[in-house]
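Next comes a single protein record:
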Amino acid sequence: MHLNNIVDEKLKEVAALEDKVLSDLIATQIETRLQPFVDITKSFSKAEKDFMKNYFSNMLLDSYGNISQVARLAGITRKQATRLLKKLGLDASKYRKALKRPETVRQPLIEDACLDGIRKYGPVMNAKNESIHQYVAQISTDIAKNLPKDYVPYKLAKKEFKKSFVSAILHKTKDKRLAAKELGISLRSLYRLVEEFRLEEQVQTSALA
């Protein structure tokens, strides 16, 4: 089930509240906190490392530190997974020893996301949905238990990160030469990436010469 639908269902079930705008807003806040984040304030290599560290941390959490399970989720061999975890500074044994249920770790983040979504929606709340505050702890606990776990393969995750990073830099600079310089690649290489990731429309709409 999609996250938006899960949030919508829990609002109805726990708080007897039917508000699609609020549930979508809360779902967005949850995704922002839990999904790997593309940070263009860092260099590409540093941002990629942080992104992949978050990617594998989530898998380790859901697998209780089982490297073979992580490898299966990522679509790679156990040997590759072991090497990547070591490179990223992730110690699987810590996840095994902690034995913390994934939902227990994520619940505080989800609760904070729910509260943030409610705050953002606050100005248009009516008397009925203002009562949601008293149900936030229960709603966030239920969402944490029912979070969808659709992991994309490692290679696809890396590719999607690179596409998102290049796209964000192009949007930020609005100039291909500046974008290439910020990415630390040649203009020719940037053209190849634009073609590979099919970003031509973005280039055109951003008025990039």
